[in-house]
Amino acid sequence: MKRRSFLKTVAATAPLAMMSAPMVLSAKEAPKSPNAMDLESAIKTITGGKEVQKSDKIKLTVPEIAENGAVVPVKINVDHPMEANNYVKTIHVFATQNANVRCADVHLTPMNGKGYFATRVKLAKSQNVMALVELSDGTFIKAEKPVKVTIGGCG
Fold first, then answer.
1. How far lies 4's CA from each of 1, 8, 10, 11, 12, in Å?
2. 135 lies in which domain range?
């Protein structure tokens, strides 16, 4: 008896499935997230249009090759004092080719003792990872390194 009711259900739903298949196959791509920004827009938003200098004071540690783009370790160590009036204020991490380039924003105070941050980010494909650092005097410095991704992590 259970088998007959199962076959009736399949027979009743099969035409519906066949009618909806073309709609599923022709579906449009999902819209981008409202938070999605390109790199230039994100940097301009953060810096307010101020100039950003490349710096060797930032030690950015990322793997040259990431086997899985879903978990790419990133370490940022800024060689800068952490004194009351002279410290690392913010560290921003970017994945330059992702739909939303902003990965992390970390706010620091002199009480942190060190301009250091470590995390894991998702990379959709091979691209540069960038660290943008804001100092307490309002200046911005950056460093970036390429990461080759063998398996993308964003989809």
1. 5, 6, 10, 11, 12
2. 39-149
28 assigned to some structural domain: no
pLDDT in tens, 81-128: 999 999 999 999 999 999 889 999 999 999 999 999 999 999 999 999
Residue 94 belongs to some domain of the structure: yes
Provide the number of structural domains found in the chain.
1
Residue 104 zone, left/alpha/beta (φ > 0; ψ -120 to 50; rest): beta
**Is pLDDT above 60 for 1?**
no
Q: Report yes or no on 25 lying in a domain.
A: no
Q: Percentage of the chain with pLDDT > 90?
A: 68
Where is 107: in which H helix or E strand? strand 102-107
| CATH classification of the domain holding 126 | 2.60.40.2470
- pTM (global) more than 0.85: no
